[in-house]
Amino acid sequence: MRRTPPVVVQVQPQRAVQSSVAAIAAVTAAVLAAWGMAHVPAAWPALAAVPVAAAWGWREAASLPRRLRWDGEAWWLTEPGSDDETRVHLDVLIDLDHWLLLRAAPGPVWLPLARSQQASTWGALRATLYAAPSRVLDA
Asked: How many separate helices (H) and strands (E) can be counted in the chain?
């Protein structure tokens, strides 16, 4: 059986992802506040939750720059400001061809990846994600 070649990608923060999550959180809070005001008109102070929810969504969707590496046998994740690598198992949760959402375990650590940020390694990354063994057993 052929082994997949090594791949290294730099995971960068994505403002579009943060904006989308913040918007979803704000809309959810606005709908809940409107529902509350429809039943109890004095519940209008619940609208204060809308910007709070948007700020929370923005903060929670933030991702730190990391390095993800496949060495031919296992995936390794390097945290910001560290040279230590952690062996991780990756799951592809969303694949839109030009954008991926990966979950690295243990953690979980969410890794959004865009083709625009990984142009030179995008093809190799996608091929490795799907061709590499799904579970690498510890020796």
From this structure: 3, 6
What is the reported pLDDT for 137? 46
Q: Report yes or no on whether pTM surpasses 0.90.
A: no
Count of residues in the chain: 139
CA–CA separation, 89 and 109 (whole Å): 10
Q: Exposure string (b/e) for 96-129, b if CB count within 10 Å is 16 or more?
A: eeebbebbbeeeebebbbbbebbeebbebbbebb
CB count within 10 Å of CB 137 equals: 6
69 phi and psi angles, rounded to 5 deg: -135, 135
- pLDDT by residue (tens digit) across 112-121? 999 999 889 9
> Residue 104: which H helix or E strand, with range?
strand 99-105
Question: Which residues of the chain register pLDDT less than 50?
Answer: 136-139
**Integer angstrom CA distances of residue 16 from 19, 21, 99, 112, 138:** 5, 9, 11, 10, 37
